[in-house]
Amino acid sequence: MLDAAWDAARRHFKSPTQTIHSTCGQSVEMVLKTSVASRTLDNITAVIVSFKNFRKTLKAELTGISKQ
Q1: Both ends of the chain: CA-CA distance in Å?
Q2: CA 65 from centre of chain
């Protein structure tokens, strides 16, 4: 599930108009879809808490990925 959340965040944060709020929303949506796709029988709840450095961490990670 963590991979699904980070993949969604990386994919949706690349657009300059994306806000952290919408990026987190896309990550939550991907976690929910991944849970449903795995046919979980449990109730599904996803919450992402974004701290101040989340934007900075995402930018640094995307910069590192693009340099490789």
Answers
A1: 25
A2: 16
Query: Any idea how long the chain is?
Result: 68
Distance CA 34, CA 66 (A): 26
What 3-state class would DSSP assign to 28? Answer: helix
Closest CA to 7 of 66, 61, 68: 61
Enumerate the domain spans of the chain: 2-67
Q: Give per-residue pLDDT as tens, 1-55.
A: 777 787 888 877 776 677 888 888 888 888 888 888 888 878 888 888 888 888 7
Model pTM? 0.67
